[in-house]
Specification:
Distance between the termini: 31 Å
Number of helices: 15
Shape: globular
Helix content: 25-40%
Oligomer: single chain
Radius of gyration: 23 Å
Number of domains: 2
CATH topology of the largest domain: Aminopeptidase
Strand content: 15-25%
């Protein structure tokens, strides 16, 4: 979604300077001719997937059945082969957990007896498939930003056994309020360590019984209303396998004012603790208080499907370049004033799914490249990147043999642009392939206006990135040929205000597809360059995902 963006030349050149895994040779970036990409395919597939017949493409619905059948038909016609053995699909077992009967969050200690109301002061969920969740007199420990980053010599859990305890955690990174992009955690540019997903995962690895993130609007980049709406009601997750990572009993958020009451009741200076947490060498602070709460859970299990097609490579078929887009949307939703209650998801993400089909057609028409190309339409992105995360945790094609890839999530259809917007610049050597493709297309990248929001960690490519696979996430440009940046910003603002995640995200026969086709040419070139290259792009030195990629390469047969 127009999340933006690229730090342009500096970031692109930075990636070019990094060494390949086990090799100091420069990157092999072959030239790639423009592809024969069908605009009619983009129109037809987008129109069909966003029609009322597909009922908003909600996972687990009749709309999913129609979507999956249609995508299989289109992948076959494009010239792909089934991507999961003889099957076009990967089953994605999901569990939906709906909390109920929430007790207050109570905090107790010597002379302390505090009570906080669910939804108003705190929210909490469980990722564990259990009928009842209960946290009883769990010791509270303030763990700063809840980060353990060996490559940055940072450990907020140092010396603390968290078993049975509840971690109280700050959102974002220690240097989020830095003016520039320099710092232990990239200054104001959020890293993976700043995301709530990481903080809960690390608390689980540390053996914590619970994790409570302190909400603060500026570092979170959204208000409490977003937390309250997102963390109440049904929550969907992939079903846990036999070797699932450890997790807490409860993950939640607490209002900043409530957190201040808790910390000050413990005899600590809240603002001083926040400042201390930003400094290297911070150690966890036991608060001398306990927390308790309980709630019930209604559990529903169901299967959804990822759709996978492959174009086998001619010389190195066991090396893979992946293209991803999510096929799902919200199904039926809050009605518009005219009574329309189908969230059709034309832009988000029928366009991205159509792009998978159109790129598959064009790549097959050009002849198979040297490496294999995978086209993966994932489910349940809108419920938390679940289909992508399930594939990445259970890959059909080994991640150690997956070279890298491109994610496509929502093309705003607004005519040609002079630029592109790239989320998460300067992270990997894929930037050098992007730079070469931009040069070939005569386009540029734009500065990043909101690096602190951490949008790189909020779409399907992230499931691969956190497991070490370099991924690009590129949006269309905002410097439109007709109207410049003002027109581009107006287009984005109008979509968010009137159509995004609502019933009016509908297909229009009047759309100007020329800008989308520009972007598809860029993706086509990048995919072709990667698939014909001999290089294995890595993350830049110091990136949070580099160690994972290096370990994956060392253990596998790829890279």
């Amino acid at each position: 979604m127009k999340h933006l963006i690229l730090a342009a030349t500096a970031a692109l050149s930075l990636a070019a300077c990094e060494a390949l895994p086990g090799d100091d040779a420069p990157l092999d970036i072959p030239t790639a001719e423009a592809g024969d990409i069908s605009q009619q395919t983009m129109i037809d597939v987008t129109r069909m997937l966003s029609s009322d017949e597909f009922e908003g493409r909600m996972p687990g619905s009749a709309g999913e059945e129609k979507t999956v059948a249609y995508l299989i038909e289109k992948f076959k016609a494009a010239g792909l082969q089934p991507g999961n053995g003889d099957s076009w699909v990967q089953d994605v077992p999901l569990v939906e957990i709906t909390g109920k009967d929430f007790q207050p969050l109570t905090v107790q200690g010597t002379g302390v007896d505090l009570s906080f109301a669910f939804s108003k002061d705190w929210v909490g969920v469980t990722y564990q498939e259990q009928d009842q969740t209960s946290i009883e007199a769990s010791e509270l420990v303030f763990v700063g930003y809840g980060i353990k980053a060996d490559e940055r010599d940072w450990n907020d859990y140092a010396g603390m056994d968290m078993k049975g305890k509840t971690a109280v955690i700050l959102v974002n990174d220690p240097d989020f309020d830095t003016a520039g992009l320099e710092g232990t955690f990239n200054g104001k540019a959020m890293t993976y360590y700043g995301r709530w997903t990481y903080k809960y995962e690390e608390a689980g690895r540390q053996g914590a019984a619970g994790a409570l993130i302190i909400h603060d609007t500026e570092p979170a980049s959204y208000g409490w209303n977003v937390v309250e709406s997102s963390w109440t009601g049904p929550q969907a997750y992939p079903q846990r396998g036999d070797n699932a990572p450890p997790m807490t009993q409860m993950n939640g958020w607490v209002q900043k004012d409530a957190a201040r009451q808790i910390v000050e009741a413990a005899g600590q200076d809240f603002d001083a603790l926040l400042e201390a947490a930003k400094q290297p060498g911070f150690k966890p602070v036991p608060l001398g208080l306990t927390v308790s709460t309980a709630f019930g859970n209604d559990i529903r299990k169901y299967d959804s499907k990822n759709v996978i097609g492959v174009l086998p490579g001619t010389e190195r078929p066991d090396e893979y370049v992946i293209h991803t887009a999510h096929w799902d949307h919200l199904g039926r939703c809050t009605p518009a004033p005219d009574g329309d209650d189908i969230c059709n998801g034309a832009v988000d993400n029928a366009t991205g799914t159509a792009a998978l089909v159109a790129l598959a057609e064009a790549q097959a028409k050009a002849g198979a490249p040297k490496r294999s190309m995978v086209f993966l339409a994932v489910t349940a992105e809108e419920q938390g990147l679940l289909g992508a995360d399930y594939y990445a945790a259970n890959p059909v094609f080994p991640l150690s043999q997956t070279v890298g890839g491109i994610n496509m999530d929502a093309f705003l259809v607004g005519g040609p642009s002079k630029d592109v917007t790239v989320v998460g610049p300067g992270k990997s050597q894929l930037d050098e392939f992007l730079s070469a493709a931009l040069t070939a297309d005569g386009r540029v990248a734009t500065p990043n206006p909101a690096p602190e929001a951490g949008y790189y960690y909020r779409s399907d490519h992230f499931a691969f990135a956190k497991r070490g696979v370099p991924m690009l996430y590129v949006d269309g440009g905002e410097d439109l040929v007709d109207g410049g940046r003002e027109a581009g910003e107006a287009l984005s603002d109008e979509y968010r205000a009137n159509r995004y995640h609502g019933p009016k995200d509908e297909f229009s026969e009047d759309w100007d597809w020329s800008g989308v086709m520009q972007d598809l040419q860029l993706f086509y070139r990048i995919g072709r360059m990667l698939a014909d290259s001999t290089s294995w792009p890595n993350w830049v030195e110091g990136d949070e995902f580099k160690a994972t990629r290096d370990d994956s390469c060392a253990a596998g047969e790829g890279c």
